[in-house]
Amino acid sequence: MCDAPTTSDEHVPPQCIFPKDAKYRVNLIKVPSCDEHNSKKSKSDEFLKFVLTAVGGMNELSGSIFGGSVMRSFDRRPHLIDTFTPDLQVIQVGELETGGFTLDAPRFELSIASIVRGLHFHKTEKNYLLKFPE
To answer: Which residue among 12, 45, 66, 89 is least packed, with the fewest CB closer than 10 Å?
Structure first.
């Protein structure tokens, strides 16, 4: 992510997007990281987990993550619902009542860019310091 001194390791993709079941957290990739790009981006990682599990057509695994750790996060910190989905509306899709919201695209793209940079480093052992094209 940067040229700052390494202070920890970061999971790429973020560990939080995987179920807590140990069979899903085997051999996760770690890359060296500075504190700013690891611990300070945990809310963005949580946002990414929410978006990945909240989209329609969830499979059983993403549904269990959403119903588990995502909902526990909302229970512990109700303000996250307004933070992640400030324009949340109830919508009907066939027989299913669900919610619709506008995606915070820059925040989502930043999370994906962090993963791309981490995977690039894992593969090449070189930092990707260039800006991504707009």
So the answer is: 89
Distance CA 45, CA 92 (A): 28
Whole-number Å distance between alpha carbons of 121 and 40 = 19
**Residue 40 falls in which region: left (phi positive, over 0), alpha (psi -120 to 50) or beta:** alpha
pLDDT digits (tens, 9 = 90+) for 12-48: 999 999 998 889 999 999 999 988 778 888 889 999 9
Cα distance between residue 104 and residue 119, in whole Å: 23
Neighbours of 77 (CB within 10 A): 12
The percent helix, strand, coil of the chain (3-state, each to 5) is: 50, 15, 35
Quote the pTM value.
0.86
Residues (pLDDT < 50) of the chain are none
Strands of 28-88 (E only): list them.
29-33
**Measured on CA atoms in the order 76, 77, 81, 84, is the torsion positive or negative?**
negative
Annotate 65-81 with DSSP letters as a single string: HIIIIIHHHHHH-THHH
Beta bridge partners of 100: 89
